[in-house]
Specification:
By secondary structure, the chain is α/β, with parallel strands linked by helices. The chain has a single domain (20-38, 94-442), classed as Alpha/Beta hydrolase fold, catalytic domain (Rossmann fold). It contains 19 helices and 13 strands. The two termini are 19 Å apart.
């Protein structure tokens, strides 16, 4: 089950309230950020555990395969047919697409602003919402993953009908020198185009980008929602944090610069994908073996295709931007420490005083909850306006998983909606929470009795 807490009190401090979770699990997770394990020891233990999981999954699948083969002895050609179909399905990939109708409202060489507002909703008196998708070598369409699993459809159904998202475009030779300043400027241009103030929703990398923007332009941010966003990159037990500490601590930025050089000035999306797979190889192995077991189940095969089309279709990241974030965020952890500067201006999270909503995944191995919940320690948002929620999900499941989209996101977006209406209508909005929650939950397919595809 998911857990959530909305803060009501906290001890005062010089730079705003000290916001701490009230439930025991979340509080323990937040405090654990200061006791991160030795990087080398953690990596060795993590990889040994993953190897054992891979061996276990291969053993399970092999046993299931032979049992099935024995049962099919009367059809000797069936095994060959299934194997060929399995191989062709794994190799058959398509480019991921947007599913909801939209139009491009602003275009730059490295990002596009997509407007998902329906014509009948354009005059709605509600603060517009801007979604910043993850930016880790994959398509931004993860926020509109499928007609049955769309974060954007859920947000719109919650009443946030003036809806936009930024679409991060693949890096090219012409955009290899795009910087953090360029990304912040396109966010600012987008919000000004939307009316001058917006609700920001940031997923993973989009979350720390939204946080930096909100700290530099607090007057333009109505609410800030962060999901699976690494704000304190060194908190908790994280494979990415441990490997960065070990590699950068011993060799500096040289390995990362070599990767970018090999990519012609950009960070290859294929290298990012390989890294994701190596972090949890058991998910990759399990996904492919389960496909073989269920190759004659069209529902399972279709869900496999949808995920693989998104996961395996990669795009490069601008090299200058990638190196900046590795050094300043992954390695130096300057955002949470308050020493980050952009164009000479310090990024002070204490400048953020809008409602803050935080969604973490209980099994998120990319961004453990402490990395996200640490944000509440640095902002000046009143304690009553900080909401924590922990979903029963891994990293990707936070953004496109049907459980999180049906049970966790509607609760958060109801709160955002209540803060997005003119003052006289906010009390009335509170009375409609249950109906909006049901409406936004219905925007996503019910996951019961349907096959699941293992994902990181």
């Amino acid at each position: 089950m998911s857990t959530a807490t909305s803060q009501t009190s906290a001890p005062a401090r010089e730079r705003g309230p000290r916001v701490l979770p009230e439930d025991r699990d979340t509080a323990a997770a937040t405090r654990s950020g200061s006791t991160a394990p030795d990087p080398l020891r953690y990596l060795l233990s993590y990889n040994a555990t993953n190897l054992a999981k891979v061996v276990t999954e291969v053993g399970r699948a092999t046993g299931a395969y032979w049992i099935d083969a024995v049962q099919r002895l009367a059809k000797p050609g069936d095994a060959a047919r299934r194997s060929l179909l399995w191989l062709s399905t794994m190799a058959d990939r398509s480019e991921p697409t947007w599913h909801l109708a939209n139009e491009v409202a602003l275009s730059t060489p490295f990002a596009s602003l997509r407007d998902f507002t329906r014509p009948e909703d354009r005059d709605d008196d509600v603060v517009p919402t801007l979604v910043l998708p993850p930016q880790a070598g994959h398509s931004s369409t993860v926020v509109d993953y499928s007609p049955q699993q769309s974060q954007l459809a859920m947000i719109r159904a919650a009443g946030l009908t003036r809806l936009y998202t930024l679409d991060w475009r693949p890096a090219t030779t012409a955009t290899k020198n795009v910087t953090i300043t360029d990304y912040l400027e396109v966010i600012d241009r987008s919000i000004r185009r939307m009316g001058g103030k917006a609700n920001l929703v940031g997923d993973c990398q989009g979350g720390w980008l939204a946080t930096i923007y909100a700290a530099l332009h607090p007057e333009r941010v109505n609410t800030l929602t962060l999901a699976g966003a690494p704000i304190d990159f060194h908190a908790g037990e994280s494979i990415i944090s441990a490997s960065t500490k070990l590699m950068a601590g011993s060799m500096g930025m040289a390995p990362y610069k070599a990767l970018v050089a090999a990519g012609g000035g950009n960070m290859p999306g294929s290298a990012v994908l390989s890294n994701f797979i190596s972090i949890q190889p058991q998910s990759e192995v399990s996904r492919q073996l389960q496909l073989l077991e269920n190759i004659d189940d069209p529902t399972h095969v279709e869900r496999y295709r949808v995920f693989e089309d998104w996961f395996k279709y990669t795009q490069d990241i601008p090299g200058a931007f990638y190196l900046w974030l590795v050094e300043n965020l992954f390695w130096r952890n300057r955002l949470i420490e308050g020493t980050l500067t952009v164009d000479g201006e310090r990024v002070d999270m204490a400048a953020i005083d809008c409602p803050l909503l935080l969604l973490a995944g209980s099994t998120d191995h990319i961004t453990p909850p402490p990395q996200l919940f640490a944000a509440a320690e640095k902002v000046s948002t009143p304690a009553r306006d900080v909401t924590y929620r922990t979903a029963s999900a891994g990293h990707l499941g936070l953004f496109m998983g049907r459980d999180a989209l049906r049970h966790d996101w509607p609760v958060l977006m109801e709160t955002v909606y209540a803060h997005s209406l003119p003052g006289t209508r906010r009390d009335a909005a509170a009375t409609g929470k249950a109906s909006r929650r049901r409406s936004s939950a219905r925007a996503v397919a019910d996951p019961r009795n349907t096959p699941r595809v293992p994902a990181p």
